[in-house]
Amino acid sequence: MMSRPAPSPVYTLRGAGGTLNTLHFRCHGDEPHLLFSGSAKGDIHVWNLKSRRAETVIEGHAGSSVIWVNTFKEGGSLISQGRDMQVRLWDLSEGRGVQVDSLWTGSVGFCQCCLLQTSPGKSLLAFAGQQTEEIQIIELPSKVQVCSLVPEAKLGMVMCVKLWQPDSGAGPLLLAGYEDGSVLLWDITQKSKLSQIKAHPEPVMCLTFDPARRRGISGSSEKSLSPWILDGQNHLQTQDPVPLVNPGVSQLAIRDDGKLLASAGWDHRVRVFGWKKLRPLAVLQYHRDMVQSVAFSDHSDPRKRLLAAGSKDQRISLWSIYSEGTDSG
């Protein structure tokens, strides 16, 4: 199962005070290297990875669970999503944690937002809408609606979304997983469905996508992951499932260099695969409860890249993942 002995965390972060639903790294240049976490308690912690302490704690969503956090490439802005049906924008400059804007989504589900920067200072935000199967896409900072996507067939609740920009120069596309196990590819500009597959017999709990390889993967409550590719005509095609020892995956993450895939398991474990061949590389065992979130750091130095995992046990584990030779995995 493993090509080398399983490592131990390089360190852990404690004090979040609740289930860790979401993690996001910001490790740019000479700026302090930060890890953002959102908890079921409603707090957003900004962890300084040098001091290994929370330098800012934002009581972000009036005690409602924080299910997604992200940052913009420019400036010190943070965006968060909570179970209070609000997306909130925060100014973090000079150690502040001041809310500067908010957006009501109307969604009561667990679908995490997705942010895609389209030009300097402008981004698209995708989120589950008020209707069961609806996806709303707006432009930021204007909050002007770009489109509303609703499938013709009844697929159940929107479970996960992923915005991405093709290399061809065409407009952004969106992948979405639904409650009935379907994955759909949407053309945002045309507001139309391009392709659809049945990836799982159960709800799609999470998905991620590698635009460079035009390949994605999704997870559910089953004992397998479902990889799929996008052909030259933008048709989704399923590939052979990747078996898991135990059922249930909360989140999936592909490292920026396209070499590693990590899964957050309901069995308290993080599994690491070579992304090219989906070969199992390691099982990371530390947490005492379900792992809810995984994230790779965006550090420019490959030797300093970390993998973070957040769990229902209220702890964040950070791992240094061996990276040499994993491109053949």
Describe the structure.
With 329 residues, the protein is an all-beta fold. It is 0% helix and 52% strand. It has no helices and 29 strands. Strands 18, 19, 20, 21 and 22 form a 5-stranded antiparallel beta sheet that branches. Strands 1-29-28-27 form a 4-stranded antiparallel beta sheet, with no helix packed on it. The protein starts with 10 loop residues before the first strand and ends in a 9-residue tail after the last strand.
Distance separating the two termini:
13 Å
Low-confidence sequence ranges: 324-329
Largest sheet: 5 strands, antiparallel
> How much of the sequence is in beta strands?
over 45%
Order of helices and strands: EEEEEEEEEEEEEEEEEEEEEEEEEEEEE
What is the average per-residue confidence, as pLDDT, rounded to a whole number? 92
List the helices and strands and how they pair.
Layout: E1 11-14, E2 20-26, E3 34-39, E4 43-48, E5 53-59, E6 66-71, E7 77-82, E8 86-91, E9 98-104, E10 114-119, E11 122-128, E12 135-140, E13 145-149, E14 158-164, E15 173-178, E16 182-187, E17 192-198, E18 206-210, E19 215-219, E20 224-230, E21 236-238, E22 242-243, E23 249-254, E24 260-265, E25 269-274, E26 279-285, E27 291-296, E28 306-311, E29 315-320
Antiparallel strand pairs: 1-29, 2-3, 3-4, 4-5, 6-7, 7-8, 8-9, 10-11, 11-12, 12-13, 14-15, 15-16, 16-17, 18-19, 19-20, 20-21, 20-22, 23-24, 24-25, 25-26, 27-28, 28-29
Concise overview:
The protein contains no helices and 29 strands. It has strands spanning 11-14, 20-26, 34-39, 43-48, 53-59, 66-71, 77-82, 86-91, 98-104, 114-119, 122-128, 135-140, 145-149, 158-164, 173-178, 182-187, 192-198, 206-210, 215-219, 224-230, 236-238, 242-243, 249-254, 260-265, 269-274, 279-285, 291-296, 306-311, 315-320.
